[in-house]
Amino acid sequence: MRKHSVSAQLTRTARRFSTVIAPQLTKLEPVPTLQRHQKVRICISNIQKLNEAIKQYVLHGGRLFDPVEFEIRAEDNDNNGNGRDQILLTAQFYTEEIVLFEGNKRLLSISLSDPVGNSELLNRFKTDGGSLGSDSPVLAKVRHPISGIKMFEVIQTQKSPQRWQITGAMDELNKCEVEAHSNVWRQMLSACGFVFAAEWWSIQNEGLRIAEIFPQKAVCEENSLRLGWSEQTSNELRLLALCFGLVQTVREAFPSLLHIMKEARQRKMQIHRPVPESP
User: Fold this and answer.
1) pLDDT digits (tens, 9 = 90+) for 198-244
2) How many other β-carbons are positioned within 10 Å of the β-carbon of residue 109?
């Protein structure tokens, strides 16, 4: 009887623990600071540190790479008239992921897919099914900061390479859609070096445009992205828009980081690849 009593007590304790802890490990926390601003900018913290990180990576044969930090700065004032150009959040690029921080607190991590098309690497980023099909390429995966559980996927639609859907990994629901746009004016600015990409991106939810992302490059400044959203945009959608902006910051604004990521993954796969047996 004593044994049964202890077992039952442990079971009840485990259930209470899972009821309290499980939601915290399967759901991203809101980021209130994003709700106080309608415009933010993603920019690199220190371009010299980026160049040094790339140099050390090359000199040490890919065995050493210091994370590259980006800043998410306010582009407008909050309701109290404060906050313009204030650093709201930071993001650090590692060879395997991008990690978003608020101070020292990890908010989420983003795993990027391989940019070149190596079949072994791309197979790791196929969807597991759902409305888009199992062959839909995944641009990125948003993961929980503690558990590492996949929370969202940025999936390229099969109908158009310039459209993506951000879906929930838990409920497989479509959270929002992203579409690339361009025009002659933007193409001219890109050709003259005033912007680093001729495209900009809009984000829609239930048919309504809720956010826009624009590449920026002022004179004597480094590449950056400007994000803007409506006042009604939910905190989750603002966070997802920011995630897509961070992905495009690496893929479009600083493609050298994408090359480093690809090389690091290939090197890791070669290390773990089994050695063929001699005849």
Assistant:
1) 899 999 999 999 999 999 876 667 899 999 999 999 999 999 999 99
2) 22
Per domain, the residue ranges of the chain are: 31-267
Ramachandran class of 148: left when φ > 0, alpha when ψ lies in -120 to 50, beta otherwise: left
Query: What is the distance between the alpha carbons of residues 40 and 138, in angstroms, rounded to a whole number?
Result: 26
Task: For residue range 140-153, list pLDDT tens digits in order.
Answer: 999 999 989 999 99
How far is it, in rounded angstroms, from Cα 241 to Cα 235? 10
Q: How far is the C-alpha of 50 from the C-alpha of 214, rounded, in Å?
A: 22
Instruction: Determine contact, residues 28/108, Cβ cutoff 8 Å.
Output: yes
